[in-house]
Amino acid sequence: MTKLFQKKVEDFICEHCGEKVVGDGYTNHCPKCLWSKHVDVNPGDRSSSCQGMMKPIKVETEKGEYLLTFRCEKCGFERRKKVEKRDNFDEVLKIVKIMAEK
Question: What b/e string do you get for 20-47 counting C-beta neighbours within 10 Å, with b at 16 or more?
């Protein structure tokens, strides 16, 4: 049986903007541009064969926290993750603005 969450402390280079990201075990996206990569089936398992880039497409609030929704540009898979303190909030606001213009 596969765990639903596996903590993985990994550093990576963002394939969207080139930022060097220092992981903390919960990091799943670049804090500079907010893009992610479809590497997991369940968080931290690194078992997705897709490997597509995941665009941040939506911002929602739930229980007083901001949540980002990412959509894989290759297969359409979506995943949500809360906005972290170190995330570039200007990028979060850009997504909100794009959503409002639709």
Answer: ebeeeeebbbbbbbbbbbbbbeebbeee
Phi, psi dihedral angles at 97 (to 5 degrees)? -65, -45
**pTM as predicted:** 0.90
Query: Token match 């804090």: residue?
Result: 31
Answer yes or no: are the C-beta atoms of 37 and 28 closer than 8 Å.
no
DSSP state of 100: H
**Contact (CB, 8 A) for 39 and 48:** yes
The helix, strand and coil proportions of the chain, stated in percent and rounded to the nearest 5, come to 15, 30, 55
Q: What integer pLDDT is reported at residue 58 of this predicted model?
A: 97
